[in-house]
């Protein structure tokens, strides 16, 4: 029977046919009230020789936005993936570090991998290895025993670990030999594999502070605003902070203030490029004045806004404001 339309609405039997067939063009229709299937997170398993750089590789993925779990018993990996699937997309990529520290559980890895394959989980195994000579040097430099060394020598532990991991290495999707790599070079290799075409993101914290309360211990860069006249000595401005428009206007009407902001922003852009190249993901810029109330606050606000406008994820913190 032909469909009858009244004011754009379909009536008659054709309407029922249309409703019944809805969604056939793009696949089976999802019954009304039925929740969609949860998205299964992408999974990377990081393993390899102790001392070969597993922690560095894991930290690199964490900086790229992966949810990282260190030393998770292999039997719990499918459970971790299931929990990620229930997160409604908040945990879309999971990295798990698996190593011989949990030797009692390591035998469960093969069973867990089979379980993941049965559930069609997209997984990759990254295996980090290094020469015996390089591993011995690294363990001796930190004066720590190999986890499988027991009462023997470091080389005995290395040999035992190689035997234990031999099959896993053969199954690895990516093998990285770190014998001659430094930390930055290893991070670059991980970025090349997992960062895609996106440039590594740099996150900046711009922190105002007062010199009379001491330098921030976590500052990467420190800049001094005490070359500018202090609003503290202007009676009508003294009660306010650098967040106040009158105080900020006073600071940036001083000779050299705007020029300083322009040039220091340019310098930070240059430094940020180098930080990204070296694999650094976080930078704290400390901006100081005498009390951390007026000049440094106003300058930090403007500097943070400039960096954010350049596409850098930026947080502005005023450490000492309100302490006086």
TrEMBL record:
Residues engaged in binding GTP: 99-102
Biased amino acid composition, Low complexity: 11-36
Tree of life domain: Bacteria
GO molecular function: ATP binding; GTP binding
Domain RapZ C-terminal: 204-321
Pfam families assigned: PapZ_C, RapZ-like_N
SUPFAM superfamilies associated with the record: P-loop containing nucleoside triphosphate hydrolases
Keywords: ATP-binding, GTP-binding, Nucleotide-binding
Gene3D superfamilies: P-loop containing nucleotide triphosphate hydrolases
Residue intervals of the RapZ-like N-terminal domain: 42-197
Binding site for ATP: 48-55
Start and end residues of each stretch annotated as Disordered: 1-36
NCBIfam families attached to this UniProt entry: PRK05416.1 (NF003828)
Protein name: RNase adaptor protein RapZ
